[in-house]
Amino acid sequence: MRVLVTGAAGFIGSHILEAARDLGYEVRGFDSLTPAVHDGMPRYIPADVDMVVADVRDADAVGRALAGVDVVCHQAALVGLGVDLSDLPGYCDVNVTGTATLLNAMGRAGVQRLVLASSMVVYGEGAYDCARHGRVRPAPRAGADLAAGQFEPRCPLCADALVTATVTEDAPMDPRNAYAASKLAQEHLAATWARLTGGRSVALRYHNVYGPRMPRDTPYSGVAAIFRSALENGVPPRVFEDGRQQRDFVHVCDVAAANLLALAASADGPAGSALSYNVASGHPHTVGEMAAALASEFGGGLVPEITGGFRLGDVRHIVASPAAAEHGLGFRAQVGFSAGIGEFAQAPLREPARVPVTLV
User: Fold this and answer.
1) Any idea which residues carry the catalytic annotation?
2) What is the pTM of this model?
């Protein structure tokens, strides 16, 4: 099987590329090596990898890269939160237009299998139960409440306190920032492509991915890399809000494994299908717990600082159910939180090699 991995030089894409090659797949990489993320080809990409260096919005380059391909694993995206109005054009251009360009080229090339990197951000806030009203969807948190230190969402019907519950794939979509809106648009485009072509799409909704090769000190970094960069710079990690916001931290090697299972699953099922799965460990932790564990494993005596600060567009809690991925893909996370954080605390962050790159 020949696989095209877009975003193949990135944090998650490079692990997928490596795992697919180890499994014996013929893999072609595709990455723009944008200067905002990379400074040349990363050293961890083997020299013998068939790598196309181009932008996913370049229809001609994408068309050439699809030659002979059986399935596409689409990881290329502009990531991050995107909280400012000026972020909208960039996220739409790279993530939405780029995905539409890829899907159009796949249709022309007759490639009918897609694995798409989606995100838990499509849900907005996680699932919550009210003692009086059952399952409810809190409204976006108001800036005035956050500034006053009122971080927990309240029942939209009675303003009572809520209890968190697990999010399943059939939860309502409620994207609350530019990045989230672009990821949901990708899923919708993939479903449209599947219906029009008879193809099969599998969208993987990643939760908080961490592990080796996360980028150092970039605006695209996830919270784990931001905290790790701070520690390496001799600065305590700065934790927003009160540190009690819950997330599911899933190791990048588990995410790569989920992609390989999805690549295999994309060969089955009815034509025109578009499936989605949470990719999560099933064992949530607070952001404060993660920061403390990372600082402890890193050493040096630095203690995370709980700032009380906030970002509009952040959600308070999101805890996923991994049951559908286990049933539909056979996926179960293998890397435990303690072991994974211990490894990440000592693993080098991504330092791109300074080598010349020839654009196609």
Assistant:
1) 179
2) 0.94
